[in-house]
Amino acid sequence: MKRSRWLAEWRHLAGKPVFYHCISRVVDRRFVLGAKEKERFRMLMRMTEKFSGCRVAAYCLMDNHFHLLLEVRPMAAEGLTDEVLLQRLSALYPEGFVAEVAGDLRDARQRGLDKRVEEIHGRFTYRMHDLSEFMKTLVQRYTRWHNRVHDRTGRLWEDRFKSVIVEDGAAARTIAAYIDLNPVRAGIVTEPADYRWSSYGEAIGGGLKGNGKTARAGLVRAWGAHQGMAADAGLWIEGGVSRAYRKLLLSGAFERVSESVGRDGRTRQKTLRKGMSKTHAAAGGDGRDGGLQIGVMLRCRIRHFTDGAVIGSRLFVNEAFACARERFGERRKDGARAMRGEASGARGTLWSMRDLRKGV
Fold it and tell me: What confidence tens digit (pLDDT) does each residue in 144-191 have?
């Protein structure tokens, strides 16, 4: 029997951000997501975002998997007005369907059938402001399109997506950078801005309007929610987020991570020093600001970020542990576990709920 997904206990409270790092892989790890497929997936992701009220803070679409840093905001206490509901529906459903729902609402209002209005809203709102429903809507809609275009049947994704609860602030921006550096770690590009299907690539190359603006607003949320910053793409420049985020992305750019396979078959990673890149120097990084260790770490695969259950400060992880004490045995006294292996660059800054000892 599968264990229930671990959700933030404060997810229904206004004013405390809830972020999840979500990962899903194509079944059998097949490389089936080309340029056309990634464009379609991103379009459906933005449509689902507008429908659900959840917000993508960062993302990266790779050839056989994807990463999302998703902010799941609570439903407003007063619910949605009819107008807002219809706006949400128009992001995901055809015009004729939305017109039909609008007619049903108008008729119920005119006849004073409050229970009927509530039922109409309930048909859709249960899928909003919810992590699992967001992911279900996104992957199912994409799978239907993919199977139709490629003349195939059956499931496309592995059974269950992974999710990790992420604290706002340092943890959220670190995970966002880790996500945006996926194509750099994979050796596809050397400059993260050159990858089209990521939040940073879209923020840089997506133009002043549309999804470029949406991507910039998402990274602002990932960077500054803990400071009470509004989710305004304008803060990308005026608030200094663009420069600060680029500095984080490039803080390990003058280090090279090499991999070797030992006699036991395990892959090992080693960091080698190189000359500082011009792009890193232009971003203002000099290796003396304390960000270098984390920057180098982000160039490695960090299992804690996909399997750590909860990532954040020591206080944050321990609070999450206390709220979900029943998930652990009696011998476990606290939640926070120090980062190990390649994740040790964040040791003392970020903590994990799971004490990962292998493959880190």
Answer: 999 999 999 999 999 899 999 999 999 999 999 999 999 999 999 999
Give CA–CA dist 61/198, Å, rounded: 6
Outline which parts of the chain fall under CATH 3.30.70.1290. 19-75+156-352
| Torsion angle, alpha carbons of 173, 178, 184, 190, to 10 | 20
pLDDT tens figures, 86-140: 999 999 999 999 999 999 999 999 999 999 999 999 999 999 999 999 999 999 9
Per CATH, the number for 19-75+156-352 is 3.30.70.1290
Nearest-angstrom CA–CA distance, 200 and 189: 13
pTM: 0.87
Give CA–CA dist 84/173, Å, rounded. 30
Pick from 1, 6, 350: nearest CA to 161: 6
257: alpha, beta or left, given left = phi > 0 and alpha = psi -120 to 50? beta
